[in-house]
């Protein structure tokens, strides 16, 4: 929990400045760890190491299958260290020890998935059109700046690092100041898996250091997970340099319970999903939309369920709801609850701070009724254990309410008829939808959002493609034949055009 160096160029590098910052436990409010405070100079060293590793090192020049072998070793090492990662996050962000999978369930498996995909992905293909032919290659985008948030630091670092490495990129990871420690375990595992020096670097720091990484001329792409406000800033900075960027941002996801839903059985599951990690999840389904004929029943069930969720010390295996990550986050959540009550929402259960534990940044699991979709609490991301229950009259209205949001990250639909639920799910403008608790099989499929929930996708083949640049090379057809065409394209009008037709010379 105490570190005195950054991970740069394959080893531990002393910080360039003297300042350090403490990691505060959200449950005890005590300092439980410490790391150096990064400066722009530390980012410069990390980017230089990544630049050298990409421009002159062996990693981008290895075959995809060779890179896959390294990722497979990393997956095994990360699986072995899952307990260590989870233990650090209990103190770092207050994630309950009872739910370690929320911090490690998609770390090792993500590296394992991309290990296999690296060997199978079509990094090259040839096409022919009469006497002309072309080779299309997928090239690594270069040096990636990966900026991750505090709510799942190792998971979200893995979601960026694994596909970037499979593509042949080098990476500089900037963990958040609230949770800088667990990502060093990832760095150690990658080092022990024989990832070459400089290919992965970890330098935690604050907003100023993050901006320096984003605007650094040595980075070719920024991959960011965090708030929509921060994403807008990063996108504008990348725009100045026409720098590649992918953004996984906020959400205000809706869960629709159609009129044939078994409310008594389903509502406890929906509340449990929404309260996961104290609601500090970008894809949390915090708007529960219920058919008006079942509204009173659902509201009562939600209140009873939330009131019974065990809240307390995250080190206690019986705890389900831990603290919020910081005092400022608790104040933010309390502000949303108070604003909702002033505008007519009814606090069905919770709404305040628990008496026990006496210390820590806790907010009671809260259910709000009589909410309409124009309220701030229904439109903005609260990032706390607060669920809004909203009535609708028919499926069309449910879809309108669900889509009436600046966000579009996730969602859910429940019905006794899965086919009916699927028909509704197809109408939702959101990047991921579960039907009756059947979630998409991540990491095999992409994750990301519509609208202000982001740009680009992580996981799945799409996650690998986001770290690649396509390149087309013109070939004599005879050479294409010797390469072995993986696809043949019939001649089309203009297929024998000269380069001048595309604005080039003769």
UniProtKB/TrEMBL annotation:
Pfam families: Aldedh (PF00171). Residues 12-472 form the Aldehyde dehydrogenase domain. This is Aldehyde dehydrogenase. One of its GO terms (molecular function) is oxidoreductase activity, acting on the aldehyde or oxo group of donors, NAD or NADP as acceptor. InterPro entries: Ald_DH/histidinol_DH, Ald_DH_C, Ald_DH_CS_GLU, Ald_DH_N, Aldehyde_DH_dom. Keywords: Oxidoreductase. The active site is at residue 248. Residues 484-506 are annotated as: Disordered. Belongs to the aldehyde dehydrogenase family. It comes from Pseudofrankia asymbiotica.
